[in-house]
């Protein structure tokens, strides 16, 4: 048995929590749900996703559910930009008050992007587990060691290195931090607008913000309409390929805070079962579902077998000299 552990997203629908408990409380084939992650209330910070209003009372309910049902809880303080006010004494004090309040309610862990806040919160709450966010872009041994020295107990590596197994193992061996791999984020590999997009969403995700034009997402969707091979270059880890990471990590994060209840349950079941047969885009998140809807793409996972995994984890990422993904996606889309 694999004994893999998964973090499941909370999408604001409390029915999801009950469904999750009913369907997956005992795990599947030795794999189990470790816990639920949820956003910080918007009155305190922005987030890495634009979701419906989430309050302190909502956070309390999620934490209480987790405590009562044997799951852990993880609050995301993963905004990448809060402006200059981020560092004002008033903001720092307000944030520390919230974190301590959530900890007193039984919060298990907190995920943070800003390294200064990692250092500050770990100092003030030494027994609260702190995870460095994927947005912290930990993609090297050196950067991982910096975050460990700042106080991080765990980290989600830059998902752009998901297929660099040797580097992931080097980072794992060089630190004592726990590694949690993000399995199904649907962002472009080496996306040129990733940082500005996160900064934009950090502000947009707060309450009482008007509807902006999401230029980064529009760019992302249009590009994959022109170059569908970019869908295969995304650094996803298919459920059936989790076994190749057994010596690297046992903890994985399923992305999907903006997905519907049944979609999250489908993704969770696929990863717990370590298998998924169907359209790749059905278990991807971020902008990928919008790409699927606009272009009616269907990429059967039967085309993404062990040979595909071996190829993409062994290539040099020089796409000007290799056309493997473009040729494979043509076959998949025409099947």
What would your notes on this structure say?
The protein is of the alpha/beta class and 335 residues long. 41% of the residues lie in helices and 11% in strands. The chain has one domain: Aldolase class I (TIM Barrel). Strands 1-2-3-4-5-6-7-8 form an eight-stranded parallel barrel, surrounded by four helices.
Topology, number of strands: 8
Per the CATH scheme, the topology name is TIM Barrel
Structural class: alpha/beta
Helix content: 40-55%
Named at the architecture level, the CATH assignment is Alpha-Beta Barrel
Total helix count? 13
Main β-sheet description? 8 strands, parallel, barrel
CATH secondary-structure class: Alpha Beta
The CATH superfamily is: Aldolase class I
Number of domains: 1
Q: Gap between N and C termini, in Å?
A: 34 Å
Could you report the average pLDDT, rounded to the nearest whole number? Answer: 94
Low-confidence runs = none
Tertiary shape: globular
- C-alpha Rg (nearest Å): 19 Å
What is the H-and-E element order? EHEHEHEHEHEHEHHHEHHHH
Strand content: 5-15%
The strand line-up of the biggest sheet is 1-2-3-4-5-6-7-8
């Amino acid at each position: 048995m694999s004994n893999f552990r998964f973090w499941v997203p909370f999408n604001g629908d409390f029915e999801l929590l009950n469904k999750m408990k009913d369907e997956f409380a005992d795990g599947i084939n030795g794999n189990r749900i470790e816990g639920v992650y949820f956003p910080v209330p918007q009155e305190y910070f922005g987030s890495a996703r634009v979701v419906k209003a989430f309050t302190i009372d909502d956070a309390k309910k999620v934490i209480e559910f987790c405590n009562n049902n044997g799951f852990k809880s993880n609050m995301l303080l993963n905004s990448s930009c809060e402006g200059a006010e981020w560092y004002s004494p008033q903001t720092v004090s307000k944030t520390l008050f919230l974190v301590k309040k959530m900890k007193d309610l039984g919060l298990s862990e907190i995920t943070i992007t800003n390294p200064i806040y990692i250092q500050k919160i770990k100092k003030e709450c030494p027994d609260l587990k702190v995870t460095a966010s994927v947005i912290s872009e930990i993609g090297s041994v050196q950067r991982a060691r910096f975050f460990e020295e700042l106080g991080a107990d765990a980290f989600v590596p830059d998902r752009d290195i998901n297929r660099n197994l040797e580097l992931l193992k080097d980072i794992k061996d060089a630190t004592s931090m726990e590694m949690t791999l993000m399995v199904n984020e649907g962002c472009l590999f080496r996306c040129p607008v990733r940082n500005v997009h996160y900064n934009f969403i950090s502000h947009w995700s707060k309450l009482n913000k008007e509807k902006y034009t999401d230029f980064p997402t529009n760019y992302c969707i249009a590009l994959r309409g022109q170059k569908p091979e970019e869908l295969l270059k995304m650094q996803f880890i298919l459920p059936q390929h989790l076994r190749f990471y057994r010596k690297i990590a046992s903890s994985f994060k399923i992305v999907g805070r903006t997905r519907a209840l049944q979609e999250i349950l489908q993704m969770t079941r696929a990863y717990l079962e370590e298998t998924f047969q169907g359209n790749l885009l059905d278990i991807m998140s971020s902008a990928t579902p919008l790409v699927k809807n606009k272009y009616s793409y269907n990429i059967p996972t039967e085309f993404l077998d062990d040979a595909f995994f071996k190829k993409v984890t062994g290539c040099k990422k020089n796409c000007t000299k290799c056309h493997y993904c473009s040729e494979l996606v043509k076959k998949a889309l025409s099947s």
